[in-house]
Amino acid sequence: MKLHLEIWRQAGPNHEGRFESVTVEDAVPQMSILELLDHVNSGMVERGEEPYMFASDCREGICGTCGLLVNGRPHGLEQNKPACQQRLLNVADGTTLKIEPFRSAAFPVIKDMIVDRSALDRVMQQGGYVTVNAGTAPDADTLHMNHQTAELALDHAACIGCGACVAACPNGAAHLFTGAKLVHLSLMPMGKEERGRRARKMVDELETNFGHCSLYGECADVCPAGIPLTAVAAINKERARAFFTGKDA
């Protein structure tokens, strides 16, 4: 299968970038987007050329490390799949694919298609933890949690922090990411002591680094973990709860 690729090349954060044209004559439909780039890079290394830089780790859709724009869509052409799981099965022979880094003011380019997503880490540092009693592990039935609540918490804990929601949002908002974390942590029986403080600090950090949410919904459309758009409601809900209770908890 023959594919025409337009791949982003940028030497560093302070350099101008450009697209470079690459033609692949022997692409295989079973290849993922990352494997396609691996194939391109292998040929470049053999020719003594500098390969394209991109981030990846587990390649199982779990780590959230991979992140690319393919024809303007985060991760790839298919809905709710990470780049490592995006196959070429539905890409026609002769298609042109434009591959570039996530585009957001909060994600500055480090090199080629690698971006700095530490702004998401800073949100988590403000409240992504729980208070527990140190010492011997408690009995399994010490903390009660019904099955429905546990499943809802797990659904939101599935967020892999890839940043696709930010790249898809016209405003560069990270409300789906932050909302998923707030829902998950607010439902857990541990960590109640810092619930209010968590909401205030995480939302403040969110608004410092990212744009405002206008509920366009593109974020949920590309989320590999399938986090629902309703998670965004946790931003105002948890912040309002903290304000009216006037307590850290």
TrEMBL record:
Do the record's keywords include Disulfide bond?
no
Gene3D superfamilies for the chain: 3.10.20.30, Alpha-helical ferredoxin
Keyword annotations = 2Fe-2S, 3Fe-4S, 4Fe-4S, Iron, Iron-sulfur, Metal-binding, Oxidoreductase, Tricarboxylic acid cycle
The residues covered by the 4Fe-4S ferredoxin-type domain are 150-179
Q: Quote the EC number.
A: 1.3.5.1
Which cofactor(s) does the record list? [3Fe-4S] cluster; [2Fe-2S] cluster; [4Fe-4S] cluster
Give the range the annotation lists for the signal sequence: none
* InterPro entries cross-referenced by the UniProt entry: 2Fe-2S_ferredoxin-like_sf (IPR036010), 2Fe2S_fd_BS (IPR006058), 4Fe4S_Fe-S-bd (IPR017896), 4Fe4S_Fe_S_CS (IPR017900), Beta-grasp_dom_sf (IPR012675), Helical_ferredxn (IPR009051), SDH/FRD_Iron-Sulfur (IPR050573), Succ_DH/fum_Rdtase_Fe-S (IPR004489)
Recall the GO molecular function terms of this protein's record.
succinate dehydrogenase (quinone) activity
Please name the Pfam families in this protein's record: Fer2_3, Fer4_7
- Is Transit peptide one of the keywords UniProt gives this record? no
Q: Identify its protein family.
A: Belongs to the succinate dehydrogenase/fumarate reductase iron-sulfur protein family.
Please identify the protein, giving its name as recorded: succinate dehydrogenase
Source organism per UniProt: Corynebacterium felinum
